[in-house]
Write a structure and sequence with these properties.
Chain A: InterPro entries: Peptide/Ni-bd, SBP_5, SBP_5_dom, TAT_signal. Chain A: Keywords: Signal, Transport. Chain A: Belongs to the bacterial solute-binding protein 5 family. The complex is a heterodimer of chains A (about 550) and B (about 325). Chain A contains 18 helices and 20 strands. With about 550 residues, chain A is α+β, with helices and mostly antiparallel strands. Chain A has two domains: about 250 residues, Periplasmic binding protein-like II (D-Maltodextrin-Binding Protein, domain 2), CATH 3.40.190.10; about 220 residues, Dipeptide-binding Protein, domain 3. In chain A, the strands form four sheets. In chain A, strands 1, 8, 9, 10, 11, 12, 13, 14, 15, 16, 17 and 18 form a twelve-stranded mixed beta sheet that branches. In chain A, strands 4-5-7-6 form a four-stranded antiparallel beta sheet, with helices on one face. In chain A, α11 runs antiparallel to α13 and α17 runs antiparallel to α18. Chain B is an all-alpha fold. Chain B has a domain of about 190 residues: MetI-like (MetI-like fold), CATH 1.10.3720. In chain B, about 75% of the residues lie in helices and about 0% in strands. Chain B is built from 14 helices and no strands. In chain B, α5 crosses α9, α6 packs across α9 and α7 crosses α9. Classes of the chains: A alpha+beta (about 550), B mainly alpha (about 325). Chains A and B meet through α1, α2, β1, α5 and β10 of A and α2, α3, α5, α7 and α9 of B.
Chain lengths: ~550, ~325
């Protein structure tokens, strides 16, 4: 290249920069598409379209829920604030047309006209293959199946082309509900087997990139980290045909921009805005705002009972008396949560979970308890939280830190990055921390098996061990399996009382799922998985 | 010239090998356990172990390294766990998005900064010199995410002039057929003017944000370099010979002042390409900066390694291009490896 040529081309480039755009040619087809399309904005998107995949993240569950069918699903009922809420105890058929529960097995008859997205009929073979897959691939799906005592492929039996029988490994109240969670979805086995390989017998690589189900929607375009486009499956047999033809789900990392998009009317739904934004949007009245408490979920302050001085129940009680409960509700959550503290002293324990403790902020009592425990001058410790949820966790921990300082407990705040949080929890070395847990299956004993049982699952973050607790939990599980209501109720009340008396973890509040929608969008339903169900949504 | 290029590329090989080793070790030294992260919220210890095995993280480090380099040699950058896609594909798809944004931002920045710098140099101490100083200082002092958010608030939220900050195209447009990956150029090639308009209107705010930020180094460098050249003997001679001031400034002074400006430009370009993470976040831009940061946050090794390697290769190429440009602009510069 010659010098002069180069200089010429540079000036040419500058001229191109000043090029004016062609005038707008706005087509009416685009406006039409807009009215039939639902635009969802959220912070993050799926990393895998198949819940059976390795390390599928939570947004991936939403795709699975809407693009695959299960044998059964839940009926709706009216929930808190009149929001449609899934009915834990009532099942409705989805792929099955009939469910017959026997003593040690359940038999499903499949809908004859049910078809996969590629037109192949849904058969009993597909159901068995999919359930086999869920219990065999390992990781989260297998674990979730195990929670309902579904662990072996022999439990799933093909009776004929349209009939499947599931044998119970043991009597377990959670088996049926576990068949209605996201994991036991039915996959197009012939299609996936064609695309499987020796190294990948379950075809996970194939279903990671595309949906191969019979659900109400199918993914037509997925750009990881940017957008997911889903089209309605007009042949869907799992329920009434959904109203929304197309769903575009865009990832907008900035919370401020998600709010701006909603307020300007460009986005239809967003569901992970900070609490403060939700309160302000609610007050402005321009949008439909729905807030529903997490089912079976609690944010708590945990104390590791294996680490001194939290091995002393008096110390734990002192901390429970020093938490600034109401301040947290007001300043951190802006009232968007259900308090789990301050129940009246004479209130009887209920057969329910979560339920409020009787603790209130009482610094004098906390000081006295601490002195009684042999720490009149307090002690030093660290208070850890997950930076992935810093919006709530950080102000919460600062308030707790301030309050604990009043009784002489000096805390250093330890911020742990999201990627690292679970590793640290697993090590069970954090003395004092805040965390949230919520279970898909909404049963008190389910929560307690995870969080308080001596089997020491990852969520028993306090390393709490108590023979009495274990007996009460297994008592309740066994009583529920055989329908012994009286024993069940005594045991549930028993373990709740014990959890509050020993107080290894201090419940703070039940968080809310906050969804903001345009006024012309309706039909939001609350599900145990807390993600959106597009099938019920309507855009006027 | 060709031997020179070949020689330069040869010299780049050891640094690339160094980059491969260092990024591999650094990502492994990061705190956080990807297996625990990807095992999901309800995973048991066994589930985490199963995931670790699947991901190959249970093998000794040296074996992981050889497997990694072997894959690299076959053009396989590995697969991202967060997005679930092969890293090479992702980078190929995302690099044009970042490049388009950065290039446009740089063009806007150059077209403001260079005239501003030249004017400031020709009239030192005047109001235009002060204006140059104030704008560049303000531009570089404001954090990019702040400038970006202010622009969004003003032009999208308040005034409604700008489209929704939803990435490269309005939701209801589809991307033009890929030729270069740059939507503006691809839309023109495909003669889809509506798409071109949509892509351009999406680009204006983020490009302006980048431009405001990069004004300072370019304008200040232009000014300094022009001042030096204007004080030199040949300019005085040209003036004494009675040449018009515009000929003196544009033909004689400016061309000679360009060398340091080009160097600055290359630095600014490579810096912006990797560091416009915040702009990408604010405008939901599907570029490589936000990709790398997200991967880093979730201890996702493959994309981080792929990103650093790509950036290293880009730096090498960019430096090579700048060196060639030197020779074109100033024949006195002889290129010796």
């Amino acid at each position: 290249m010659k010098r002069r040529d180069f200089l010429k081309s540079v000036s040419g480039l500058a001229a191109a920069g000043a090029l004016t755009p062609a005038p707008a040619i706005w087509s009416s087809a685009k406006a039409q598409a807009r009215s039939e399309t639902l635009l969802i904005v959220s912070e993050s998107g799926p990393n895998n379209l198949d819940i059976h995949g390795v390390g599928t993240n939570v947004p991936g569950y939403e795709v699975s829920w809407n693009c695959y069918d299960r044998l059964i699903s839940h009926e709706m009922k009216s929930g808190p604030g009149g929001v449609p809420y899934y009915d834990r105890d009532k099942f409705k058929p989805e792929l099955a047309e009939d469910m017959n529960v026997g003593d040690m097995s359940v038999t499903f008859k499949l809908k004859k006209n049910a078809k996969f997205h590629d037109g192949a009929p849904v058969t009993a073979k597909d159901v068995k293959w999919s359930l086999d897959r869920a219990v065999s691939v390992g990781g989260f799906p297998t674990f979730q199946m195990g929670a309902g005592s579904l662990t072996k492929t022999e439990q799933f039996v093909v009776v004929d082309d349209n009939t499947v029988r599931i044998d119970f490994a043991k009597k377990d109240r959670l088996t049926l509900p576990d068949l209605a969670v996201i994991v036991p979805c039915v996959v197009n086995s012939e299609l996936v087997k064609k695309n499987a390989s020796e190294k990948d017998p379950w075809g996970l690589e194939y279903t990671k990139q595309q949906t191969a189900g019979s659900g109400a929607y199918k993914v037509t375009k997925w750009t990881a980290g940017t957008e997911v486009v889903m089209e309605r499956n007009d042949e869907w047999t799992g329920g009434p045909l959904p109203k929304v033809k197309r769903v575009i789900w865009r990832m907008v990392p900035q919370a401020g921009n998600r709010r701006a998009l909603l307020e300007r009317g460009d986005a239809d739904i967003s569901y992970d805005l900070p609490n403060k934004d939700f309160v302000e949007l609610k007050d402005s009245g321009k949008l439909n705002i729905v807030s529903v408490p997490y089912s079976n979920g609690v944010q708590y302050i945990g104390m590791n009972v294996k680490i001194a001085p939290f091995d002393n129940p008096k110390v734990r009680e002192a901390v429970a008396c020093a938490i600034p409960y109401q301040k947290i509700m007001d300043a951190v959550l802006f009232g968007l949560a259900k308090p789990m503290f301050g129940a009246p002293a004479d209130k009887a324990t209920e057969v329910a979970w979560p339920q409020p403790t009787k603790y209130v902020t009482d610094i004098t009592k906390a000081k006295a308890l601490l002195a009684e425990a042999g720490h009149p001058n307090g002690f030093e410790t660290t208070l850890s939280f997950d930076l992935g949820f810093a919006g709530v966790n950080e102000p919460l921990c600062v308030l707790v830190q301030e309050s604990l300082a009043q009784i002489g407990i000096k805390t250093t705040i330890n911020k742990i990055p999201g990627a690292n949080w679970r590793t640290e929890l697993n090590k069970k070395v954090l003395p004092l921390y805040t965390n949230v847990f919520s279970g898909w299956l909404d049963y008190p004993e389910y929560f307690f098996i995870w969080c308080y049982d001596g089997k020491n699952s990852i969520f028993n973050t306090m390393s709490y061990q108590s023979k009495a607790m274990d007996e009460l939990i297994s008592g309740a599980v066994d009583a529920a399996a055989v329908g012994n209501t009286a024993k069940y109720e005594t045991d549930v009340k028993g373990f709740v009382d014990l959890a509050f008396k020993d107080i290894p973890r201090i419940p703070l509040y039940q968080p809310y799922v906050n969804v903001a929608m345009q006024k012309n969008v309706s039909g939001y339903q609350y599900w145990f998985h807390r993600r959106l169900d597009y099938r019920a949504l309507v855009k006027a | 010239m060709l031997t020179m290029i070949g020689k330069r590329l040869m010299f780049a090989i050891p640094s690339l090998i160094g980059v491969v080793i260092v990024t591999f070790l650094l990502t492994r030294a990061l705190p956080g356990d990807p297996a625990a992260y990807f095992a999901g919220p309800a995973a048991s210890k066994e589930a985490i172990e199963q995931i670790r095995k699947k991901l190959g993280f249970d093998k000794p480090l040296i074996e992981q390294f050889f497997r990694y380099t072997n894959d690299l040699a076959h053009g396989d950058f590995g697969t991202s766990l967060t997005t679930g896609q092969p890293v090479a594909t992702e980078i190929r798809n995302r690099l044009p998005a970042s490049a388009e944004l950065t290039l446009l931002g740089l063009i806007v920045s150059i077209s403001i900064a260079i005239p501003l710098g030249v004017l400031a140099a020709t009239r030192p101490g005047s109001w235009i010199d002060h204006l140059c100083r104030v704008t560049t200082t303000a531009g570089v002092s404001l954090p990019v995410f702040f400038t970006g958010l202010v622009l969004v608030y003003l032009f999208y939220f308040r005034l409604g002039w700008s489209p929704a900050p939803l990435g490269r195209l309005d939701v209801f447009y589809s991307a033009p057929p890929t030729v270069t990956g740059l939507y503006l150029i691809d839309a023109l090639i495909a003669r889809e003017f509506e798409t071109f308009r949509s892509a351009l209107s999406q680009l204006i705010l983020p490009a302006a944000t980048l431009a405001i930020f990069s004004l300072a180094p370019i304008a200040r460098m232009t000014r300094a370099s022009m001042l030096a050249v204007l004080a030199s003997d040949f300019v005085r001679t040209a003036r004494a010979s009675g040449l018009s001031p515009s000929t003196v400034i544009v033909t004689y002074a400016f061309r000679n002042a360009m060398l340091p400006v080009i160097t600055t430009l290359s630095m600014v370009f490579s810096f912006l390409l990797g560091a416009n993470v915040l702009v990408e976040k604010v405008f939901a831009w599907p570029g490589i900066g936000s990709y790398a940061v997200e991967a880093l946050i979730s201890s996702d090794f493959a994309p981080v390694q792929g990103f650093v390697l790509t950036m290293a290769v880009m730096y090498v190429l960019l430096n090579l291009i700048i060196d060639i440009l030197y020779g074109v602009i100033d024949p006195r510069v002889r290129l010796e490896g």
